[in-house]
Amino acid sequence: MPLRRGSGSERLGGFLCRCHGWGRRCAGVVALHQFAGVFEQHVDQSVAQLKAQELTISTAVINAGLAVENAYKLYQASVKSREAAEKNADASQVRFDNGMLTNFEVVQNQQTLTASRLSELGRLISYMNAVAEFERVQKVGG
User: Can you name the residues that pair with 3 across neighbouring β-strands?
Assistant: First the structure.
């Protein structure tokens, strides 16, 4: 039988069943409202999961951005270190030419310069990898 609009305490979702009279609620309406409650819980859970995923992604993007900043600062420091090693190697060569240093000391300073250059290249690669990871996280999301 069709449902009619009810009023007062007999009303459940605005409908009453004609087949059971005005005082009885239709089981179908009750089941429908139970389903709506379960559906609302699922929607709430989905919203909570989306918020958690959003926080995870934003955290990943922030961490990747900080990694880029740190890698860049390390690269800048290695550039300064290499520049200082170059000046030191040049000065040691001049001192060697003037007889103030031995060949061993010049070679040590040149090895230090080579190590500084390798460190700078390694830091540059780390920086480029951090930038690539930052871009990947922004596109993919963690």
Answer: 17
Whether the model pTM is above 0.85: no
Distance CA 12, CA 18 (A): 13
Radius of gyration of the chain (CA): 37
The Cα-based distances of 84 to 70, 81, 115 in angstroms read 21, 5, 12
Question: What residue spans define the domains of the chain?
Answer: 3-140
Q: What is the pLDDT of residues 44-96, one digit of tens each?
A: 889 889 999 999 999 999 999 999 999 999 999 999 999 999 999 999 999 99
What distance in Å separates the CA atoms of residue 71 and residue 58, rounded to the nearest whole number?
20
Q: Which two tokens stand for residue 90?
A: 């040049």
> What are the two backbone dihedrals, phi and then psi, of residue 3, each rounded to the nearest 5 degrees?
-95, 150
Helix residue spans in the chain (DSSP H): 27-97, 103-140
